[in-house]
Amino acid sequence: MSTPSTDVEAQVLRLMWRETIKYYNKHLASNQKDKILEKSVDDPASPTCGLGEFIHDVESALSTRYGPAPKQKGLYDALQNIQLYASIGDVMIQHQPHITALIWGAARLLLQVAVEGVGLRFHIAAAVSHVLQKFDRCRKEAILLRNNPEAFNAVVRLQAHTLNYLFRARAYCKRRHRITFRLLGDAFQRKFASLWSKVERADQELASFIRTHQAVEQVEFRTGVGKTVLASWLAQRLSQPAASAHIYSRSNARGALLPQSLLLAAIVQLLRARQCLVEQLKPAFWDNLQSLVVPTHFPLQEIPCPLLFTLLTEVLKLLPSSVLIFDGLDECPECPAATQLFESLLSLKADPNIKTKIVLLSQRTPFLDQQLQVLKRLDLCANTMSGPIEVYVRKRVEENQQLQDLHDDIIRTVVEGAQGLFLWARLMLDSLENADSIMQQRALLQEPPSGLMDMYQRRWDEHQQDLGNEQIKQRDEVLLLLAGHTHPVDLDVICEALVLFTDPTIPAKEKKFFYRGKKIKQLCGSFVEVSGNDVQFSHSSARLFIERLHRRTNQNPYEYLLRISLSKLRELQYRDWRTCLRLLWMNIFGGEKFPKELDFQVAESALYNHACLNWQTYVTHLSRLPDDLVEELRSFILGNEFVTWSENLYLLRNKSGLEGQLNVVIELRQWYEQLDQDTRPELPISTIFIEAHESLSRDLEQNAGNVLARFLPLMRLGWFLSLAARSFGDLQQDLDYKTTVAEGFLRYLGERDPITLQAQLAMYADYLWKGPYDFALERIQAVYDIQREVLGEDAPDLIGTRTMIAGAYYRLGQLREAARIFQEVLERILTTMGGMSKAFLAGELFLGEVNEFAGNVQEATRLFRDVEKKWVDKNGKTSPFAAALFTGFGSIYRRQNNFDDAAGYLIDAWSQRVRIQTTEHPLCVDSALQLAVLYRDASKPEMARDFLNEVANSSVFGVSFERVCQRTHIQAMLLFDAGEYTEPRNNLQALILSSIGEDREKNNRELLWVRLNLAEAMRRHDEADGALMLFTELVTPIRDDNSIDAVSINTLHDEPEPVHQLQIAETGLRLIRDGRYEQADNLLLREGLAWVRPQDFWIIFGGPMADTATMHLRPPATVSIEK
Question: Any idea where the Nephrocystin 3-like N-terminal domain is (predicted)?
Answer without folding.
Answer: 223-362
